[in-house]
Each structure stands twice: as C-alpha cells, then as structure tokens.
Automatic annotation (TrEMBL):
Substrates-to-products reaction catalysed: adenosine(2503) in 23S rRNA + 2 reduced [2Fe-2S]-[ferredoxin] + 2 S-adenosyl-L-methionine = 2-methyladenosine(2503) in 23S rRNA + 5'-deoxyadenosine + L-methionine + 2 oxidized [2Fe-2S]-[ferredoxin] + S-adenosyl-L-homocysteine; adenosine(37) in tRNA + 2 reduced [2Fe-2S]-[ferredoxin] + 2 S-adenosyl-L-methionine = 2-methyladenosine(37) in tRNA + 5'-deoxyadenosine + L-methionine + 2 oxidized [2Fe-2S]-[ferredoxin] + S-adenosyl-L-homocysteine
Entry's cofactor comment: Binds 1 [4Fe-4S] cluster. The cluster is coordinated with 3 cysteines and an exchangeable S-adenosyl-L-methionine.
Record's protein name: Probable dual-specificity RNA methyltransferase RlmN
Pfam families named in the record: Radical_SAM (PF04055)
Gene field: rlmN
PANTHER family: 23S RRNA METHYLTRANSFERASE, RADICAL SAM CORE DOMAIN-CONTAINING PROTEIN
Enzyme type, top EC level: transferase
Active-site residues (renumbered): E114 (proton acceptor), C369 (s-methylcysteine intermediate)
Cofactor(s) demanded: [4Fe-4S] cluster
Family the UniProt entry places it in: Belongs to the radical SAM superfamily. RlmN family.
EC numbers for this chain: 2.1.1.192
HAMAP family tied to this protein: RNA_methyltr_RlmN (MF_01849)
C-alpha cells in the first residue's frame, strides 16, 4: 500500500516487532459509539457505557467501588471489559520540589515506558510516551539507542495523561488541586510512527467530557523527527495540534548523522512538509534543535538554519526551540558552551525568527528531553 505521497510504504524500522500480544481493549481505545455497542453486546444497557466514561474521564475515578451509580453486578462486568488494568507504576522520581515527577510504568507484557508530569505556575504539562523504545536510532538520544520494542495502544497513551490528571486533581502535586492543561508527545518513541494510536489518543484527550478529557487541541503538541507522509496526513485531520519538528541540523550532511531518517526525507522535504502543516492548520510549528557542542552549534549553522526557515517568506509560521543537550550515559555528545548558545539565539533573532531556549526540567532524574530510557 502506498503512502499519502505515493512513495512505497515506510521501512520496517517504523513497525513494531510482529507476533506480540496486543494490550487488552480499554474504554479509551473506543469511540463513544463503540463503547455503547460493546455494552449492548455484553447484554447491558447502552447508557452504562456513558456512565463509565463519566467516571473515567469526567470524575477521574480509578476505584470501581466509587462508581456507586452502577449496579454492583453490572459494574464488575463493565469494569472487567472496559477498564482493564493497562499499566502498573513501578517508580516515581521527583525534582523541582515535587513539581516535576517522572513515573516508570510496566505495561501488561512487561515492556517499560516513562512519562513526566511538569507543573508550572498557571499550567501543568504531561510528557507522554507513544512507543516502548524507539526505532529512529538518533545517536544522542537515550531512548533511540535502546531500539523499538512495540507500539503503545491508544489507551496506554491516554492512561499516562489520566494518571497525571488524577494526581493533580487529588492535590498530590505541590501547588494544590489542578488539572492537566498541556500534553506533549515528546516521551519515548516516534509518535508519527504509531500514527493510528497517537491520533486516537489525541481525539480521546480532546473529545468533550465525558466522552473524553475535554482538553483543547491547542494544548497538545505532537513531535516528530520528520516522517513526511505522516506530517501531511496529520495536516488533513482537522485537529489544530501543534507540530514540533525535531530538526537538530539545517543541512543534510550533518542531519543524516544525527537523525538517520533524514536519509529518507531530506531537510528540504521535511521543512517543506512542516511549512505546509502550518499553512493548512494556521498553527505555528515548533522547530526543536538540540544544541551539541562543536557539532551543530556553530554560528554558520545558525545562519543556515535561518536561511532554511525564512525561505518560505513569512517567518511567522515557525518558532525555534533550542534544547541544551541533556547528558546520557556513555554519550560522546555534550551541551553547547553558553556563549555559543547565546550567539546562536542572537543570529536567529536578528533574522526575525522567534527563538527560545528550553527549560531543562527533570535533568537530575533523567526526565528531560532525550533522557528517557525506562531503566528498571
């Protein structure tokens, strides 16, 4: 089957290993209509599915005993068929006085993934994983060095967000009761390589309560290393999520080394697809750029990056997010000198390109960008 741009299918490195048992079906995997149909199949009134959705998404209940509007016998059957346990927390590490929390999850088949909750004044962001491991093999990223184990299901992705939402709602995070305002698909995995499940998760998160969590799509960011056909496909979905393109180099020679998928889709093709996404959705694209000492942080590369991004005329379509490289065990890559970082910013801003340097929260608990490795 051809890709949306007419090319042959994406190579097998994008696919999970075959023969794996799928995660149990969960309410969050299903549309509201599918939930109702399942309840009817079980011999239960269809409206019970909506009641269960209200508990899960609306009230953030995870204890069946609290679902007192459901008759006990029906409750047990509904919970068994629609709310199976998907993942077990093994460890939670905290930083920033408890406002940054990284959780290690064990999935039903033993696969390990991590998610990070970051609370800021006025907002709370969940950074979620979409795959156990990653097949993109970027050499400076701890996740990429571990390889791909499998794709996560829609419900496994959603449950990471719901776990964070429950912690906030129950006042378990310093700052009092709160809610998840932002979700970033920047944890383990390449989100667009698990397109169907990620799209399903975005829809569950943005569906109106109680069908979903009721978040604004503008609070959701989907990151990618540049799967061009999938970027184009996402642009047609009618979901105004923010696209974050992990570029890391403005020229093919260096990006081929840093982001191996660039040998399939060049810098020009990738940035063109991102620009088309911005044109279609009217959402500004974030360009992610990890700053590596002596590798991609030279002044001339800042100029070249500016040339690439401004070649589309209106620079307002894009924002550059520079990421001080976070350390990973055994890596030869190190963060840029602060003076080189400042010069990089200065050159981009001089060309009219909005640029910020990302806050490296969670670095001390290996919870920052590029550090998630799900070590037991």
């Amino acid at each position: 089957m051809a890709e949306p741009d007419g090319r042959s299918p994406l190579p097998l490195v994008f696919d999970e290993p075959r023969g794996r048992k799928k995660p149990p079906r969960h309410l969050a995997d299903l549309t509201p209509a599918e939930r109702k149909d399942l309840a009817v199949e079980l011999g239960l009134p269809g409206f019970r599915a909506k009641q269960l959705s209200t508990h899960y998404f609306g009230r953030l209940v995870d204890d069946p005993a609290q679902m007192t509007d459901l008759p006990a016998a029906q409750r047990d059957e509904l919970v068994a068929n629609l709310l199976p346990e998907l993942m077990t927390p093994l460890r939670t590490l905290e930083a920033d006085k408890g406002t940054t929390r990284k959780t290690l999850w064990k999935l039903f088949d033993g696969a390990l993934v991590e998610s990070v909750l970051m609370r800021y004044p006025g907002r709370a962001t969940m950074c979620v994983s979409s795959q156990a491991g990653c097949g993109m093999a970027c050499p400076f990223c701890a996740t990429g060095q571990g390889g791909l184990q499998r794709n996560m299901s829609t419900a496994e992705i959603v449950e990471q967000v719901l776990a964070g939402a429950r912690a906030l709602a129950r006042g378990e995070v310093p700052g009092g009761p709160g809610r998840v305002s932002n979700v970033v698909f920047m944890g383990m995995g390449e989100p667009l390589a698990n397109y169907k499940a990620v799209l399903g998760a975005v829809r569950r998160l943005t569906d109106s309560s109680p069908d979903g969590l009721g978040m604004s799509a503008r609070g959701v960011t989907v990151s990618t290393v540049g799967l061009v056909p999938r970027i184009k496909q996402l642009a047609e979905e009618g979901l105004p999520v923010t696209l974050a393109l992990s570029l890391h180099a403005p020229d093919d020679e260096l990006r081929n080394e840093l982001v191996p998928i660039n040998t399939r889709f060049s810098v020009a093709e990738t940035v063109e697809a991102a620009w088309q996404y911005a044109e279609k959705t009217k959402r500004r694209v974030s360009i992610e750029y990890a700053m590596m000492r002596g590798i991609n942080d030279q002044a001339q590369r800042a100029d070249l990056l500016a040339d690439v991004l401004t070649s589309y005329g209106d620079w307002g379509w894009v924002h550059v997010n520079l990421i001080p490289l976070n350390p990973t065990p055994g890596s030869k890559w190190t963060a840029s000198d602060p003076a080189d970082e400042r010069e990089f910013v200065r050159r981009l801003e001089a060309r009219g390109i909005p640029t910020t340097v990302r806050d490296t929260r969670g670095r001390e608990i290996d919870g920052a960008c590029g550090q998630l490795a799900a070590a037991p």
